[in-house]
Known about the structure:
With 469 residues, the chain is of the alpha+beta class. Helices cover 22% and strands 29% of the residues.
Amino acid sequence: MLKVLIEWPEPLGALTFSSSTSPQTSHFGILHSKPSYSVGETLEVSVTARDHQRKQKTYGGDFLQAKLHSPLLKAGVTGSVRDHQNGTYTVSFQLLWPGKVEISIRLIHSSEAVHILKRLRDSRPDKIYFLGYFQKNGTMETTECNIEILSKPVCEYRDPRTGENWICERPKQLPCSAYVYQSTGGIRNITTLQEDTFFHKNVTKQMIRGPISALQVLPRENALAKKLPACTPGQKITHPSGYYYKGTWASLSCSNKRFRTQLEASSCLRGKTVYMFGDSTLRQWWDYLVDFIPSLKKIDLHVEYHAGPLLATDAGNGLLVQWRSHGKPLRMAKMMAADLHYMANDIAGLGGGPNMVIAINLWAHFTSFPVEVYIRRLRNIRRAVVELLERSPNTTVILKTANTGHNYGSNWLSLQLDLIMRNMFSGLRVGIVDAWEMTSCHYLQESLHPQRAIVQNQVDMFLSFICPS
């Protein structure tokens, strides 16, 4: 079911660069154009994809990202893209604030480039590799490690609870038990020169032009006067899930709050034990809270920063905040292998309760692997969350989604995992911080690690679930 959810249209015919989608020859136009537009209305835009020979495409599958934004107002909202699978697309925008708004539609990847990404993701899990460091009695060896290693003698490290398996090439002299450290290894270049042309900077993340780039939106009284409920875990998320106005995120699913001072944030978290399990984009939350709340002091546990655990406490407020990585695979510096825990095991070891908050995320380090690897990992985490909420229903669990701007991967690969993650946790009493939309429509440039202004809005949304009133 999950794999059906992320099915993507395939290109027709041979993969040639000249017949792939060109951002320079493609264009958009306003559908049902009107003399004026007002807040509360929907703007629809039609995109026509053309190849490098200016011929209209006859099939879909291009990966487009769209936003409506007002840079001077620091306002933005994502657009919804509908693929008609005939070379045309309809993009819908909600008009949520008055003033001059600009239309931004980018071709992230042509359908032909997506086809290559998908094939290499599914067939070459070795494109990213890791190193295992073995040492015993003064002897040291380094071998390659990964989710899967074929045609070589290996050491297998299977987790007894989750069944997750990690494999290293067997050292020539040392036993498998001498595995002590792990680090990222490198990236293999597995694309051909012909395939590289589909990912050239001139055709990737490029703007598609239209007859107008901006329009004026008129104010309308009470257009957005609908009262939203408080933010509580388990709410259905809308699309768009929110928008920026004057740099502040306004959720369209619930009434989120702004925690402007350290006193407001520390008062919200008073008496809480907060566990964060995930990657470095979630570690940014931990870093932000430690920086924002002066009374929250770091405890040096003498561990690798990229693996954790990172711990901070505020004795006066009875607050503890911990971040820990989600475990292997992790593309980071050399670290103790024993410090890399599987997230499901850590969650299973918690009792829960009304004063416990758990934040989780998982995506960036899985974009290079077949989706079955990611689904298996998420299934274990979901099971642990379900069991936690069964024994302690008043535990607060928050999910941070994937964000755009993956430096080493692709927004399309990230989107695939994000769709799976959201679906996997749907129906559970879990709050969702929509980092995907919060990074895709911001005025700052996309980055794997968003700048502080975005992280602040994410943390404010996180705190809104903990302290809705």
